[in-house]
């Protein structure tokens, strides 16, 4: 499963030409899952991601999608931006719907021009308003796709990935552009460069919402190259577009997409130090998504959003506390209509963001370990740490009576001869934490209402441990 899949790959190699295979890496550890994560995380940090993103703060974003989907104009977006700014968020990401006449997901891809109905004074006017607030501006693209109602498709039907027969499949109302063709990549780069430069875009959210079917390239046919070269040439075209954008805009933060495109991999992380892991933003689901993802990749690449409830994928209701306590681990974002929240919910977010900013470096770049075996599908606990501080996250999906009696997290990498402060109110010796452990939070059991620290389903509790 490592490297180019030979089932579809062929390459025409002329005399005196060479072909470089993609690099692959295989990890081994004899220290269990935590040993594996130490190896994989350090490798990504040290050898894949641009090191400037280890010191440059990842912005706390507000994303417009779950707030408004396609139903917005500049006035509505600015109301959301002002509310987000008041609560401490740092980057407004304008998601889908800003270009062409994009009022549904069946139109306008490949026409990367601003919708003047939604932005009568131009997208640069909206961007300037955000920058005047002191916020960064993020913008959504789906560069690899084209809608059949666009001039791009009508003028260049041969730029679409499709077999040469009369009938071809369309998915989600869109086609995949042939990024094996350098001319296609140049066209999309030219469109994106103009928007990014004119609107002073700081952050790009890169999506890919349709899988490749009928993998045939008219370009390869014209060049007398085998169709077995398509997938490799396609992804090299994708990388080339990333590289050209970053050469033109070196400080641009690009958040890649895994839910569409399946690109949670080391190759893309060279260009994209942050990945949207899944459109399933339900906090309970994310416990499992994060636990699996962290086996291979560090927290810094895992983009987390506090989304609206009931959740758009599973219709589950979870508390704001539970959603925030989970989204803290990695780059933090919000994706809901802040104007619909109560004053107490807004205060909760404001206070939480203040705490997150104080601990951001640790939560994004700290060393990550699991504290509960991964085969427990109801309880989860992990720790991020540096030399002086640790933050432990504990989560339980469903409440169980008397489930927390005499249960502890053992914290191994401590100095036995030093003392530690837990949540600003408890002093504990390193020897105790290392050999006995940190007690799980007290769960409500029917009679301990005054002392219970967690209650009901979807519980969360955070511990901060500081060396004294």
Explained architecture:
The protein is an alpha/beta fold and 468 residues long. It has two domains: 32-366, TIM Barrel (Alpha-Beta Barrel), CATH 3.20.20.70; 379-467, Sandwich (Immunoglobulin-like). It has helices at 32-47, 65-68, 74-87, 123-133, 151-155, 182-198, 218-222, 230-248, 266-269, 283-293, 320-327, 343-365, 430-435; strands spanning 61-63, 91-94, 136-141, 145-146, 175-176, 203-206, 253-257, 274-276, 304-307, 332-335, 367-370, 379-385, 389-396, 408-409, 419-422, 426-429, 438-439, 459-467. An eight-stranded parallel sheet has the order 8-7-6-3-2-1-10-9. It starts with 31 loop residues before the first helix and ends with a strand. The mean pLDDT is 95.
Topology summary:
Blueprint: H1 32-47, E1 61-63, H2 65-68, H3 74-87, E2 91-94, H4 123-133, E3 136-141, E4 145-146, H5 151-155, E5 175-176, H6 182-198, E6 203-206, H7 218-222, H8 230-248, E7 253-257, H9 266-269, E8 274-276, H10 283-293, E9 304-307, H11 320-327, E10 332-335, H12 343-365, E11 367-370, E12 379-385, E13 389-396, E14 408-409, E15 419-422, E16 426-429, H13 430-435, E17 438-439, E18 459-467
Parallel strand pairs: 1-2, 1-10, 2-3, 3-6, 6-7, 7-8, 9-10
Antiparallel strand pairs: 4-5, 11-12, 12-13, 13-18, 14-17, 15-16, 15-18
Features:
468 residues; 8-stranded parallel β-sheet; 2 domains; Immunoglobulin-like; alpha/beta
Under CATH at level 1, the class of the largest domain stands as: Alpha Beta
Radius of gyration: 24 Å
CATH superfamily of the largest domain: Aldolase class I
- What is the spatial order of strands in the main beta sheet? 8-7-6-3-2-1-10-9
Q: Report the biggest beta sheet as strand number plus sense, adding barrel if it closes.
A: 8 strands, parallel
Total beta strands = 18
Mean pLDDT reading: 95
What is the strand content? 15-25%
* Helix and strand composition category: alpha/beta
Low-confidence stretches: none
Tally of structural domains: 2
Helix content: 25-40%
Q: What is the tally of helical segments? A: 13
Distance between the termini: 48 Å
> What's the shape?
globular
CATH topology of the largest domain: TIM Barrel
Give the CATH architecture of the largest domain. Answer: Alpha-Beta Barrel
